[in-house]
Amino acid sequence: MAKLEIRCPSCSARGKIEISEDAIKNISRGVLAVNIAVDMICEHSFIAYIDRNMQIRDYFMADFQLQLPANSSPTLVENRIVPETESIDFDLIRINIPALLIAHVIRTTFFGKKIIIISDLGFLYNHIINFFKYIMRNSFEIDITIISSENSKANKKSYKDFIILQGRDIIQDKDKTIDPKKLEVEKTIAEKFLSEYDLMTSLIMLRNEIHKAYEYSKTIVDLIERRKDKVGTSKILIDEISKVHQENIKIPYLKFLVQIVKNYFKVDVPPIDGVSDLLGFL
Known about the structure:
By secondary structure, the chain is α/β, with parallel strands linked by helices. It has three domains: 2-79, no CATH class; 90-182, no CATH class; 201-279, no CATH class. The chain has ten helices and twelve strands. A four-stranded antiparallel beta sheet has the order 5-4-3-6, covered by helices on one side. A four-stranded mixed beta sheet has the order 8-7-9-10. The chain has a two-stranded antiparallel sheet with strand order 1-2. Helix 6 runs antiparallel to helix 7 (199-227) and helix 7 packs across helix 8. It starts with a strand and ends with a helix. The model is unreliable at 62-83 and 277-282 (pLDDT under 50).
């Protein structure tokens, strides 16, 4: 048995768990999802993702529990079903939804804009809607509609306030919300989902990344509201996120979070040394 130190993503309590070496050897691709039950480390239950090199890839505070064998040994995510995802065919999503479209939807949602996707694949409509609503649940509100190309032409005037997407193309974006040069984080999140071998692992990681963006942005909102116009420097924001979430972030990701604060939470962001000069529009 190998021992591995685990940190709770909620309270930062640390403890060690034992993992069967056979379980690690069985991972040819993807990661091992280890369910940390209540009282194993602390009062929280969460999932730790471990690669074959015994490195922690990620943590997730799940709103569901993976079913474990009676001996509480870790299990692979494959073949596990989250009840809320039964109405989503992820194979169809991966085959028919390009990473760039996912990135565009994420960006648009993070900016608080309404979305229309043009698609003539009627059998996909419910899967796409349920997919995006699921990954945004308990974090960002998403306003998304799917219409056929015929309806998009017939009702064009009704959609003047929407960002309209079709495949990899941006059909309408009056405010230039989706800047291809500023999609690094959103594209990374989308590509991470599509490149992960295990479907359930990829889904949970995708939702986790979105949830992180929401929580970290809220932390910045809280700091701005407490300190008014005296935020000061990027280091103050980075230190606050580190204190609250026990994670160190870099300036490019902080820039991404500040955009969410301004555009989704509609909070006036005071001048911040090391960030405002990178954002331009602040």
